[in-house]
């Protein structure tokens, strides 16, 4: 039985060799999760710049043609990576919805300039 908090409940039920394998895999998952967060932050920083440009030039927050192309591209990438393409589509749709919402806010509240007093929201940075 392990007292390592990273083991979770499994530490009570498996021998130490299996537990070490489990902890190693979980460590990899934790590293991947951290990388995903940082990549999403970078993506949202770029899309905030897109939102500012759209607002300055009075472009609509949504771009259905671009969104459709991005979804198709991401679904193909997912399929190539042996990831469920429907999951990839849902994930991108969630991001797109947040981006559009924040592009609308940029356009409506600041004439194209992000509000420096607004709280940070990762979705502002798509």
UniProtKB/TrEMBL annotation:
Chorismate mutase domain location:
16-107
Point out the signal peptide segment. none
Q: Which PROSITE patterns match?
A: CHORISMATE_MUT_2 (PS51168)
One GO MF term, please? chorismate mutase activity
Region Disordered, residue ranges: 106-126
Enzyme Commission code: 5.4.99.5
Q: Keyword annotations for this protein?
A: Isomerase
One GO BP on record is: salicylic acid biosynthetic process
What PANTHER family does the record point to? CHORISMATE MUTASE
Protein name as it appears in the record: Chorismate mutase
Organism field: Garicola koreensis
């Amino acid at each position: 039985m392990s007292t390592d908090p990273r083991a979770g409940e499994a530490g009570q039920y498996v021998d130490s060799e299996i537990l070490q394998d489990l902890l190693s895999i979980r460590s990899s998952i934790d590293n991947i999760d951290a990388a995903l967060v940082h990549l999403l932050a970078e993506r949202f920083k770029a899309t905030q710049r897109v939102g500012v440009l759209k607002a300055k030039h009075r472009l609509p927050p949504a771009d259905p043609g671009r969104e459709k192309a991005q979804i198709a591209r991401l679904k193909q990438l997912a399929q190539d990576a042996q990831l469920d393409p429907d999951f990839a589509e849902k994930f991108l749709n969630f991001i797109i919805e947040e981006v559009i919402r924040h592009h609308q806010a940029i356009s409506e509240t600041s004439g194209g300039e992000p509000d420096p007093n607004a709280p940070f929201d990762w979705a502002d940075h798509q």
